[in-house]
Amino acid sequence: MADTIFITDERIDGDTDTDADGPLAGRTVAIKDNISTEGVRTTCGSAMLEDYVPPYDATVVSRLKDAGATIVGKTNMDEFGMGTTTETSAFGPTDNPAAPGHVPGGSSGGSAAAVAAGEAELALGSDTGGSIRCPAAFCGVVGIKPTYGLVSRYGLVAYGNSLEQIGPFGETVEDAAALLDVIAGPDERDATTREAELEGERYADAATGDVDGLTIGVPTELVEGADDGVVDTFWDAIAELEAQGAEYHEVSLPSVEHAVEAYYVIAMSEASSNLARFDGVRYGPATDADGNWNETFSAVRREGFGDEVKRRILLGTYALSAGYHDKYYKKAQDARAWVKQDFDEALSEADVLASPTMPVTPFEQGESLDDPLQMYLADANTVPVNLADLPAISVPAGESDVDGLPVGLQLVGPSFGEERLIRAASALE
Amino acid sequence: MSDDADTVDPEAVRHVADLARVDLEADEVEAFTGQFADILEYFETLDEVPEVEREADLTNVMRPDEERDSLDREAALQNAPETEDGFFKGPNVS
């Protein structure tokens, strides 16, 4: 199992000498392979970066080391974070420890699988459109997508930088929250980071399970499209929260009907720009391609990138090209603003919003690679949260009574409302 | 990928690939032509989105313009397939 979870199975010890009492002393953490680790190769699941060794640490990695954590390896992922199954990795697929023969979700599939298989107590992933929450749901672990700006992206290899955040996985809500405590907070190297605005001392302290008086909004649009087994498990979880003193009401978010297309237009457009840096000159595979700059550049990118990455770069280039910018990119930004408004409104009358994390249970390995559009539609419940810059958590809700596979419950909160999500999610444990 | 969004032909896929500096094999052009038609048709539904007033609450973040440490040259060059005299070496520009 471990050989498909990690791309690089190399241990990095934290600062145990200087900080033996660090909050993560003695704890093991797996790190997604798009987060830079000084001296340990960081591939992004791509042949383009197969031999790339970062000369510096991402801010989150420095903070883990300072906290005394032991890093146990760099985990497998969809190439550059582009996928929902971890099957687009140039290093092969990862099996799902909670559902053998099925995908672990993606793109941070290796990180979720590492925690589910006990290869690491904790893990870091990144979430551009659901890449932490989807694998958390599929592998039966907890994953948190922080508010945009809570966690530094310095050293995270960019895919869709207006959407993505690094976030934690854990076996329990409290564990994931304890990792969030270590990585959250302003960083002068990422100008989009903000102060955390905590009510208490630490995020982990919020894992009290107290939901008495909590109001939960359930967006009908995010439940209707889900499989029957997922919907039943979801309502069982809501009933459990009700039994503990929470109350729920249904809400409508009409804008989310356009979230998937808005998300993909924005993410692909940003990807086409961000991935322009992979030109085979400063890093990347050596080629013996002849010709001028453009010809050599194009040849390196043909060899270095897989199908899904090429697809997104091309579609993003198209969406930004003269004559199409207004039609796609500008409309997608309108949709993004609309989604934000809808969430703000719904959260003015509910403490948190709840939905199934994924409308489906884990796909079988190899089931879904041929139809990219079908794959994109599976992200319907997670991408609206990235468009709205809000925090969300996925917590195990049980197994589907149709196929016995894991189902995750997603809770969404207001900006910097992570404590509220941690409190509510811990009531399901 | 002409004015009529319903027509995505192989020539259009090659044109975008050229703009994006990604060489494609013939079978990739063929597969992408069909997939792009489906995906772009789906993106068409953005037409139904109303114009939305965007009130971005943004503040500029500045830092003092002071000299500070950066990567040394050796570290910056360590991943380059080819270097010469402390510089990156790339292909001819034209």
Please outline the helices and strands.
The complex is a heterodimer of chains A (429) and B (94).
Chain A (H helix, E strand, L loop, with lengths): L1 H4 E3 L19 E5 L26 H8 L3 E6 L33 H8 L5 E6 L5 H7 L2 E4 L19 E6 L2 H11 L31 E5 L1 H4 L3 H16 L3 E5 L7 H16 L18 H12 L2 H14 L5 H22 L4 E5 L15 H6 L5 H5 L4 E8 L6 E7 L5 H8 L4
Parallel strand pairs in A: 2-3, 2-4, 7-8, 7-9
Antiparallel strand pairs in A: 1-3, 4-6, 5-6, 5-10, 9-11, 10-11
Helix pairs in contact in A: 3-4, 8-10, 8-11
Chain B lengths: L9 H10 L6 H18 L29 H5 L5 E2 L2 E2 L6
Antiparallel strand pairs in B: 1-2
Descriptive notes:
The complex is a heterodimer of chains A (429) and B (94). Chain A is α/β, with parallel strands linked by helices and 429 residues long. In chain A, helix 3 packs parallel to helix 4, helix 8 packs across helix 10 and helix 8 crosses helix 11. The radius of gyration of chain A is 20 Å and the shape is globular. In chain A, strand 10 and strand 11 form a beta hairpin. Chain A has an eleven-stranded mixed β-sheet with strand order 1-3-2-4-6-5-10-11-9-7-8, with helices on both faces. Chain A has a domain of 253 residues: Amidase signature (AS) enzymes, CATH 3.90.1300.10. The model of chain A has no long low-confidence stretch (mean pLDDT 95). The longest helix of chain B has 18 residues. The radius of gyration of chain B is 23 Å and the shape is flat. The N terminus of chain B is likely disordered. The chains are: A alpha/beta (429), B mainly alpha (94). The interface between A and B is large, with 62 and 50 residues. Chain B: Heterotrimer of A, B and C subunits. Chain B: It catalyses: L-aspartyl-tRNA(Asn) + L-glutamine + ATP + H2O = L-asparaginyl-tRNA(Asn) + L-glutamate + ADP + phosphate + 2 H(+); L-glutamyl-tRNA(Gln) + L-glutamine + ATP + H2O = L-glutaminyl-tRNA(Gln) + L-glutamate + ADP + phosphate + H(+). Chain B: It holds the Pfam family GatC. Chain B: This is Aspartyl/glutamyl-tRNA(Asn/Gln) amidotransferase subunit C.
